[in-house]
Design brief:
The complex is a heterodimer of chains A (about 200) and B (about 550). Chain A has about 200 residues and is mainly α. Chain A is built from 7 helices and no strands. In chain A, about 75% of the residues lie in helices and about 0% in strands. The longest helix of chain A is centred in the middle third of the chain and has 33 residues, at about 90-120. By secondary structure, chain B is mainly α. Classes of the chains: A mainly alpha (about 200), B mainly alpha (about 550). The interface between A and B is large, with 43 and 56 residues.
């Protein structure tokens, strides 16, 4: 055995492999993108094909304010992660909570819009093709925001308890990748639903 | 540099009560045990799906047979297809991947062991859910129990009006949850392969099996998710009154076809690429030569991965697409024959001039080569849209894809069983029973699926319940059924071999085949931690380097 052991090759000078958390999150993002692509294709395929009203032009209002909320939360989570990396936990916590608030505000916006569509315009998921595709696509996105918020909140609870420091920076980066993805998807959904779809 | 010198005794489990051992298996996060669990669950479903195939064949044994009712017949072909693809082929390939990938790249486990356990159990329970439909799906209206919409589940067959009760829901949810398991496993495999390699194991030195599983996992991420999305839409339609696939409200049945086949065709490559992986590991060892054209092999695999995304609508030539679409999908489907052909030539090039050892794993590999070639040729025929208009939905198509899945994938899986069983259990599979298994299965396979092309050309449609006498189909169908039973017998011998050899097989030792990849450097079965100390590699064949220190591969690569 020792002869074999002696003939073992020398280890390479440096051996650095990618972070598995980031690779896995990238994989999840690719998979999720494919799911969203299918829903977007269905939405675009059925634009203008509803046999009965209401139509998007009649009832949709562009949610500019809530969109700004969600998109700016990408900036705040990025800043939070950077501050954590440098070990400034106080600034991290501040920007993290701001991210949670902006995400929550966006979800409130979606809820508000749905309430208006359902109670003022009588548009539900079974009303027509527009209702089916709209609630599915926007709902799928809102579900992802909700999941993201749940994870952000868990981190926030730990952070308030003083358990999150620079050592967790790698994990926070993984979570912020997901949040950036959710924001990027909203740009696509926004374009499809509120710009192209009308 | 103490690599294999340290031996820590493996934890003794034999002495423990069976409840404890069972508990350890159920709660395990060890990639090797999970791999074996995947394989065992697949074998269970293989038996069930095989019995369903035999029921189909007995019903078709002669004209005007009434072995089962038409309703049961519909359920049988639906369950047979769904079971074999989602709960046999996928899990068995993931099982081997789970078992082998960390061992081959010199890692102690997968990147996410607990996620790995989650993936297995959710896939397995997905399969159980599908079969629970037999008791649970009746619902109201005295509706049918098992799913009966075909494995494509084309709209509007799955609409509430045409599929009352819950059978289609069981089908949908079973595939959805097992799909989540497959996606999670793929993410896990990708993270493992990219992030857990032992020092020196650069991408260009990885065993081809790891490369091919990497590509396969990438395809799963992009191609399996459309099915999950389509299943979600179907659930919206069935439960929330949505209209995605409801033509009454402007929805489109063709959209479902597109979504299904955007998944459905890459799925074939998801299944065949791991089979290529087995071929690429086994053929060199039994030809006593390194693999021919390693970089080309990787490139061809990646090319297949990309091309596989652009061929789906060749399943839909008869739907009535425009001629541009028909031409596009004809060309892409034929183009995929090029990288596949490169692979076949690479295996031939590996065998060429080698000292070929005709052990059972190699026999199955050679069978694979011939049969996969023929399957590819009928595939090229069907890729030509005018030809497809003639033979789509006929038994010619059934013969073609069984040639791929049985003649290709299953043969490669059998080769993998005979090759890696010694590593998994520490005992060799019986060579004599293996020969019986191979030859009987080969005869049965060719009797069934060679002949099946002919009734297809004569006009026999697939999924037909029975047929009129005097069309020239009777004798052929009788022979096909006989072939199916010969295959069944071969499978019985195979299962018997697995069981008998587990108790009575010859001791395998660490490296029964004199092979070159890292899994053969450790004991059989490997200890829970795989490698006492993480190996360091300098070439594609680390064990060759160890065995031949005077002439290591690393001098040439």
């Amino acid at each position: 055995m020792s002869a074999i052991a002696n003939s073992l090759p020398q280890p390479p000078q440096s051996w650095i492999l990618p972070d598995r958390g980031k690779v896995a999150m990238a994989g999840l993002i690719i998979a999720e993108s494919a799911i969203f692509t299918i829903f977007v294709v269905a939405y675009l395929f059925y634009v203008g094909k509803s046999l009965a009203g209401p139509t998007p032009r009649e009832v949709l209002e562009t949610p500019i304010f809530y969109t700004i909320c969600l998109l700016s939360s990408s900036l705040t989570i990025h800043l939070a992660a950077k501050f954590l990396e440098r070990g400034i936990t106080f600034a991290f916590l501040g920007f993290w909570l701001l991210t949670v608030a902006l995400g929550g505000l966006f979800l409130f916006g979606t809820a508000h819009e749905w309430h208006r569509l359902i109670y003022e315009h009588g548009l539900t998921i079974s009303t027509n093709l527009f209702g089916t595709t709209y609630y599915s696509l926007v709902g799928l996105h809102a579900f992802h925001v909700t999941a993201g918020l749940a994870m952000l909140l868990i981190v926030a609870i730990f952070a308030l308890g003083g358990r999150v420091d620079a050592k967790q920076s790698r994990r926070i980066d993984v979570l912020s990748m997901y949040w950036h993805f959710v924001d990027a998807v909203w740009i696509v959904v926004f374009t499809v639903v509120y710009v192209l779809g009308r | 540099m103490a690599s294999n010198a340290i031996t820590i005794p493996a934890s003794r489990v034999e002495g423990q009560p069976w409840v404890d051992r069972l508990h350890q298996w159920i709660t395990t996060v060890d990639h090797k045990r999970l791999g074996i669990l995947y394989i065992l669950s697949s074998l269970m479903f293989l038996t069930v799906g095989g019995v369903e195939a035999l029921i189909i064949r007995v019903q078709l044994i002669h004209s005007h047979a009434s072995f089962v009712s038409p309703e049961v017949f519909n359920r049988m072909f639906t369950m047979h297809g769904t079971t074999m693809i989602f709960f046999v082929a996928m899990p068995i390939l993931f099982g081997f991947g789970n078992y082998l990938v960390p061992l081959m790249i010199g890692a102690r486990d997968m990147a996410f062991p607990r996620l790995n356990a989650f993936s297995f159990w959710i896939s397995f329970f997905g399969g159980l859910l599908l079969y629970f439909s037999l008791v649970g799906a009746n619902g109201l209206y005295g509706a049918g129990n098992a799913p009966d919409v075909g494995w494509w589940a084309y709209a509007p067959l799955t609409a509430r009006a045409f599929s009352p009760g819950h059978s289609s829901d069981y089908w949908t949810v079973a595939l959805l949850v097992s799909g989540f398991g497959s996606i999670a496993t793929s993410i896990n495999l990708i993270a493992t392969i990219l992030c857990m390699r032992c020092p020196g194991m650069e991408l260009k030195r990885m065993p081809l099996l790891a490369w091919l599983y990497l590509v396969m996992s990438g395809i799963v991420l992009i191609a399996l998710t459309p099915l999950s999305a389509a299943q979600l839409m179907l659930i919206v339609d069935r439960y929330l009154g949505g209209h995605f696939f409801d033509a009454q409200a402007g929805g489109s049945a063709v959209l479902w076809m597109h979504f299904f086949w955007i998944f459905g065709h890459p799925e074939v490559y998801i299944l065949i690429i791991p089979s290529f992986a087995f071929m690429s590991e086994i053929v060199p060892v039994f030809s006593r030569k390194p693999i021919f054209g390693y970089p080309v092999m990787v490139a061809a695999t990646i090319a297949i991965g990309f091309l596989s995304m652009s061929v789906w609508a060749h399943h839909m030539f008869t739907v009535g697409m425009n001629s541009t679409a028909n031409s596009f999908f004809t060309i892409t489907s034929m183009a995929i024959g090029v990288p596949t052909g490169i692979k076949i030539f690479n295996w031939l090039g590996t065998m060429w001039g080698g000292k070929i050892q005709l052990k059972v794993p190699m026999l199955f590999c050679i069978g694979f080569l011939f049969q996969f070639l023929i399957a590819g040729l009928t595939g090229i025929m069907l890729a030509a849209s005018p030809f497809d208009w003639q033979l789509s939905l006929s038994y010619f198509v059934v013969a073609h894809f069984h040639y791929v899945i049985v003649g290709g994938i299953l043969f490669a899986v059998f080769a993998a069983f005979y090759y890696w069983y010694p590593k998994m259990t520490g005992r060799m599979l019986s060579e004599r029973l293996g020969q019986w298994h191979f030859w009987l299965f080969l005869i049965g396979f060719h009797l069934t699926f060679d002949l099946m092309h002919i009734p297809g050309v004569l006009g026999m449609p697939r999924r037909i319940y029975t047929y009129e006498p005097g069309r020239g189909w009777d004798t052929l169908n009788l022979q096909i059924t006989v072939g199916a039973f010969i295959q069944g017998l071969a499978i019985v011998i195979f299962i018997a071999n697995l069981i008998i050899s587990y108790f009575k097989g010859d001791q395998a030792g660490n490296d029964p085949w004199d092979a070159w990849t890292l899994e053969w450097s450790i004991s059989s079965p490997p200890p829970a931690y795989n490698f006492a100390s993480i190996p360091i590699v300098a070439s594609r064949r680390p064990l060759w380097d160890l065995k031949h220190p005077e002439d290591p591969d690393s001098h040439y690569e």
